[in-house]
Amino acid sequence: MADTPKGEYFYGMGRRKTAVARVRLFPGGDGSITINGKTAPNYFGQRDTHLAAVAAPLRALDLNNNAYTLTVRVVGGGASGQAGAIRHGLARALVRLNPDFKLALRRAGYLTRDPRMKERKKPGLKRARKAPQYTKR
């Protein structure tokens, strides 16, 4: 388990579906990303799309990955929702670090919370919209 960096950090909370990510952005450091005590590749496994989503705000700003160290606590949801929540939280932390980043991150869509959620099951239906099969006789 990696040691938590000490010193000043910038905080951002991100949400996606039912996942909630609390992101701490430490200026300087080795550029590592720690998610729930594991490195990002270990946490997401072979899912390169999730790793790309997590680092997307840094790429949108053309920031060097080695300039910042990230520690993340994420709960709820699945891998895709967690990756989106981390991306949202990282974008918010970057805006706290430098308010000039806000316009570029807003244009890229990383500061907008994705409102899509799973639709609730309705009474009398099998799922949210699937009705029982109709029989005439």
UniProtKB/TrEMBL annotation:
Residues 118-137 have a biased composition (Basic residues). Keywords: Ribonucleoprotein, Ribosomal protein. The keyword Metal-binding does not apply. One of its GO terms (molecular function) is structural constituent of ribosome. It holds the Pfam family Ribosomal_S9. GO terms for cellular component: cytoplasm; small ribosomal subunit. It comes from the Bacteria. Residues 114-137 are annotated as: Disordered. InterPro entries: Ribosomal_Su5_D2-typ_SF (IPR020568), Ribosomal_uS9 (IPR000754), Ribosomal_uS9_bac/plastid (IPR023035), Ribosomal_uS9_CS (IPR020574), Ribsml_uS5_D2-typ_fold_subgr (IPR014721). PROSITE patterns: RIBOSOMAL_S9 (PS00360). The keyword Signal does not apply. SUPFAM superfamilies: Ribosomal protein S5 domain 2-like (SSF54211). One of its GO terms (biological process) is translation. Belongs to the universal ribosomal protein uS9 family. PANTHER family: RIBOSOMAL PROTEIN S9, SMALL RIBOSOMAL SUBUNIT PROTEIN US9M. NCBIfam families: PRK00132.1. This is Small ribosomal subunit protein uS9. The gene is rpsI.
